[in-house]
């Protein structure tokens, strides 16, 4: 049996590597003395269900990290991000990064979301009661993966929901998320049962079922409470609630005059998530659906509640991130991201867009990319794709592809601003390829190589493109330079 000895200070006589985890928990009066543990970095350690450190069962990435244990998943993330496994372990231990991976789900591409890491992108997929076609969902999944998504979310509300969820879990090479209340509400409406009869036990049973299936992370609208609803009731919003899951909770609370069960029984939610190491994504039910509604009392009240719940989740050993807006004026995006980071002790921030204008219907993938780049540069960690079909209807595979590509552009721009490891090197390689008129390299370095391959039209000399031909600035300046 392996046990981990806690030591004072940050050095080890035997030269073992150690990680600072937290300030002195004993309040000994010695100032900011760090509490450190030896780091075990064997790629095969720890096996599941091994009692480690003071006889406690460590079952989540967060618990492992707090114990100073570098898991295989942390090693994978470290290789992808160009960081040391120990630094990834520290980020997870501090709650500044999460590795969404259910213990029941084998993911081909394990990713981490959080501070100092490349900004990740999610693609929303799923059916509706108006359109439920599994073949189309398969095409949308292929399009999202081809476009380079890091995650998908199944938001289905039509068809056989269990079968669709299993379909995505079996076929997706990336992490899979859901919004559990969608499934329960859909089933109730199908049998003519009003939403006010939603039972808390049924809701938690649905959550547990989806966790057992292998869902890696889930959106739960825990911040819609009596307190935040009171702020909504006194607000002058154009659209009080545009979150589908949030509106279900709001409707239930108003009809029954009861507290949100996801908030009231948050400990039960944590117990379920911990058992399967499911990352909780604390949903922003009162995100603004109009830039006129942004940065108001309901939104900020909910954010403060979510920040408190995020701390509670981390203390319980559950990985957690917070979701953000929504429609936000461009001048407020940066300050809102910074506010979330400050209130929540740098909990990973997952944003939809944001959308800095309301009038770009049909082009909201562009609007979302503008807002997403600013949010990512300010510290947002995870961008949810916005497709051209946003506000209009269910997206098809082309919409999904364009949405993911737009969000990936935004994510990379944010990474350049944040100084994420390796981001500037990508742009430099592309610049060198262009300077050399090396079209093969240009295609290889492009975000969307296939599109560049199709759009690359070369002039007769097969070196310059058809835009400038013999007046190619790159070619002419190179000739002048070489002649000197």
From TrEMBL:
Keyword match Signal: no
Q: Any idea what this protein is called?
A: Phosphomethylpyrimidine synthase
Query: Which InterPro entries does the entry link to?
Result: ThiC/Bza_core_dom (IPR038521), ThiC/BzaA/B (IPR002817)
Known EC number(s)? 4.1.99.17
| Cofactor(s) needed | [4Fe-4S] cluster
Specify the species: Acetomicrobium flavidum
- For the protein in the UniProt heading, the enzyme class is lyase
Q: Which UniProt keywords apply?
A: 4Fe-4S, Iron, Iron-sulfur, Lyase, Metal-binding, S-adenosyl-L-methionine, Zinc
């Amino acid at each position: 049996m392996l046990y981990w000895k806690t030591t004072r200070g940050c050095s080890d006589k035997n030269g073992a590597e150690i990680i600072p985890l937290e300030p002195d928990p004993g309040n000994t009066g010695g100032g900011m003395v760090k509490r450190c543990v030896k780091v075990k970095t064997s790629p095969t350690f720890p096996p599941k269900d091994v009692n480690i450190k003071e006889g406690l069962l460590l079952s989540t990435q967060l618990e492992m990290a707090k114990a100073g244990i570098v898991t295989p998943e942390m090693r994978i993330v470290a290789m992808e991000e160009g960081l040391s496994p120990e630094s990834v372990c520290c980020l997870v231990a501090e709650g500044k990064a999460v590795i969404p991976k259910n213990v029941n789900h084998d993911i081909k591409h394990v990713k981490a979301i959080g501070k100092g890491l490349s900004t990740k992108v999610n693609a929303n997929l799923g059916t509706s009661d108006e359109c439920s076609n599994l073949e189309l969902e398969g095409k949308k999944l292929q399009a999202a993966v081809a476009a380079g998504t890091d995650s998908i979310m199944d938001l289905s509300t039509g068809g056989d929901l269990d079968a669709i969820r299993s379909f995505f879990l079996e076929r997706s090479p990336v992490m899979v998320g859901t919004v559990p209340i969608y499934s329960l509400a859909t089933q109730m409406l199908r049998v003519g049962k009003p939403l006010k009869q939603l039972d808390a036990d049924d809701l938690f049973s649905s959550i547990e079922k989806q966790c057992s299936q292998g869902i890696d992370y889930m959106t739960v609208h825990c911040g819609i409470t009596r307190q935040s609803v009171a702020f909504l009731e006194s607000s002058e919003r154009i659209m009080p609630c545009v979150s589908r899951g949030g509106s279900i909770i709001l409707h239930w609370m108003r009809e029954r005059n009861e507290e949100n069960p996801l908030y009231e029984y948050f400990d039960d939610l944590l117990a379920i998530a911990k058992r399967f190491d499911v990352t909780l994504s604390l949903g922003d039910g009162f995100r603004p659906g109009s830039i006129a509604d942004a940065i108001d009392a309901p939104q900020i009240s909910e954010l403060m509640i979510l920040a408190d719940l995020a701390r509670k989740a981390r203390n319980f050993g559950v990985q957690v991130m917070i979701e953000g807006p929504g429609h936000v004026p461009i001048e407020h995006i940066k300050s809102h991201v910074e506010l979330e980071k400050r209130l929540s002790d740098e909990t990973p921030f997952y944003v939809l867009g944001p959308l800095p204008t309301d009038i770009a219907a049909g082009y909201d993938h562009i609007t979302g990319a503008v807002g997403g780049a600013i949010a990512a540069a300010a510290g947002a960690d995870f961008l949810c794709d916005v497709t051209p079909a946003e506000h209009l209807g269910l997206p098809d595979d082309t919409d999904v592809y364009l949405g993911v590509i737009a969000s990936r552009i935004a994510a990379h721009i944010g990474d350049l601003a944040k100084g994420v490891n390796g981001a500037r090197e990508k742009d430099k390689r592309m610049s060198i390829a262009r300077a050399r008129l090396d079209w093969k390299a240009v295609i290889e370095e492009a975000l969307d190589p296939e599109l560049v391959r199709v759009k690359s039209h070369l002039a007769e000399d097969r070196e310059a493109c058809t835009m400038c031909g013999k007046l190619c600035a790159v070619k002419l300046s190179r000739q002048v330079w070489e002649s000197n």
